């Protein structure tokens, strides 16, 4: 089950049904099933606190993923700074909704085992993100 929580933030026009559909399709396509996943939208400072407390990183990020997956059942917590999503969308000249898709799919791809620490892994991760965005964007608009 996928749950959505909003901590001191609103996302205008957020379509939870679209994300539940596309995430479940992404997971099926990657060979996984969905367990319990919580997606928490928050502000930069909240996510920075999590980054400091749990990862000992002192910088802003758009997403932090905690993976509790076992035996092909995807479970975890995704914390997403919506402020960072908006800033990234502006920087990369994409719609906010597209950048939000990218960040959410990025988190789920991490839960599927994809990494982004090396250049090679990052290229693969971006390719997967682009694939799923293009797969769902025409249905969503």
Walk me through the structure:
The protein has 141 residues and is of the alpha/beta class. It has one domain: Collagenase (Catalytic Domain) (3-Layer(aba) Sandwich). Helices cover 54% and strands 21% of the residues. The protein has five helices and four strands, in the order βαβαββααα. The protein has helices at residues 16-30, 44-55, 82-92, 96-111, 119-140, and strands spanning 2-6, 33-42, 63-67, 73-81. It has a four-stranded mixed sheet with strand order 1-2-4-3, with helices on both faces. A hairpin with a 5-residue loop joins β3 and β4 (73-81). α3 crosses α4 (96-111). The longest helix is centred in the C-terminal third of the chain and has 22 residues, at 119-140. It is globular. The mean pLDDT is 95.
* Tertiary shape: globular
Mean pLDDT: 95
Largest sheet geometry: 4 strands, mixed
* Number of DSSP E strands: 4
Task: Describe the secondary structure blueprint for this structure.
Elements: E1 2-6, H1 16-30, E2 33-42, H2 44-55, E3 63-67, E4 73-81, H3 82-92, H4 96-111, H5 119-140
Parallel strand pairs: 1-2, 2-4
Antiparallel strand pairs: 3-4
Helix pairs in contact: 1-4, 3-4, 4-5
Structure characteristics:
four-stranded mixed β-sheet; Collagenase (Catalytic Domain); 141 residues; 4 strands; single chain; alpha/beta
Provide a brief overview of the structure:
The chain is of the alpha/beta class and 141 residues long. The protein is built from 5 helices and 4 strands; from the N terminus they run βαβαββααα. The mean pLDDT is 95.
